[in-house]
Amino acid sequence: MKIDLHIHSTASDGTDSPETLAIQCAEKGVDYAALTDHDTLAGSSAFLKTAKRLGIQAVNGIEFSAQYTGELHILVYRVNLEDASFRGVVKEVMRHRSNRVVAMTQKLIDQGYDISHEQVQKYAAGGAPGRPHIARALVEKGYAKTIDQAFCKYLNVGCPGFVKRKNLTPTQILQAANTAGGVAVLAHPKLTYAPNFDKLFCELKYLGLAGVEAFYPEHSDEECKYFCELAQKYGLFVTQGSDFHGRMRSSTDLGKEKRGNENPLLKQGLHVIFEKK
Predict the structure, then answer these.
(1) pTM
(2) Which residues pair with 74 in a beta bridge?
(3) Residue 124 phi/psi, 5° resolution?
(4) CA angle, corner 200, sides to 263 and 267, nearest 5?
(5) How far apart (Å, rounded) are the C-alpha atoms in residues 190 and 3?
(6) Please, which of 97, 98, 122, 238 could form a disulfide with 214 given CB 3.0 to 4.6 Å?
(7) Which CATH class is domain 3-89+178-275?
């Protein structure tokens, strides 16, 4: 059994279309899948339609960045796509995201970097623009050799092009998700760099969190075990995902993460996300 509940397409910062990703999931034998683009549901319908045709169990998904001292991302699955309130939240987040990309691009232009807004939008290809698209423009112009290098030199905190992101609070995200019938999961907790994961899990559970992405390529076996133990302590299920971005991140592959396949908390998560009504 292959499970990948963390995938990105051209609708945000991946390099493959939603339809192509569904086909790739079928080719790699992925049984359960979710498209989780940053701040947008634009690719959901195409992904779900193709996945259904190919016999893949699939649900819609979205990944939000939340206000936090460091990084804190929340994945939301199976929302009612017709829910006006949730669509309003997504629209507001997208507005902030687009404004930030414009501001970062202009900041670099003002400092003499030979990139343009048109270049960045070209890489976004009509999807949700983000820092990776600025990074690709910088690589194209020779300011960096790789996407990672572009981030480190120009786009991260303290770098020439950095502009602080305006995010929703965890409370706002979880409330919007639950109101729209969605299921909220803490993405890649290791990358959250929380000083006290026990406290964080407790607080997020109280706010409406349902699960934790315990099985993730950058988690060590010990970290997977630790996050599963905390999830069980607070009555949360667990999920697994690759965080696949296509050519944007060559280190990951669809269905790559398999360590959770036999974990009962993961089976519980599949039941909640895919079957429970």
Answers:
(1) 0.89
(2) 64, 186
(3) -70, -25
(4) 15
(5) 20
(6) 238
(7) alpha beta
Task: Domain ranges for the chain, please list them.
Answer: 3-89+178-275
Mean pLDDT by 10 residues, the chain (277 residues): 95 91 97 95 95 96 90 95 90 89 95 94 80 92 92 93 90 94 97 92 97 97 98 98 83 87 96 83
C-alpha–C-alpha distance, residues 44 and 269, integer Å: 20
Question: How many helices (H) does the chain have, and how many strands (E)?
Answer: 10, 7
CB distance 54 to 48 below 8 Å: no
Please choose, from the candidates 118, 98, 122, 102, the residue with its C-alpha nearest in 3D space to the C-alpha of residue 39: 98
CA–CA gap between residue 214 and residue 41 (Å, rounded): 24
| Cβ proximity of 86 and 182 under 8 Å | yes
Answer for the pair 267, 3: CB distance below 8 angstroms, yes or no: no
Number of other residues whose CB lies within 10 A of the CB of residue 66: 20
- Taking the C-alpha atoms of residue 188 and residue 16, their distance in angstroms, rounded to an integer, is 22
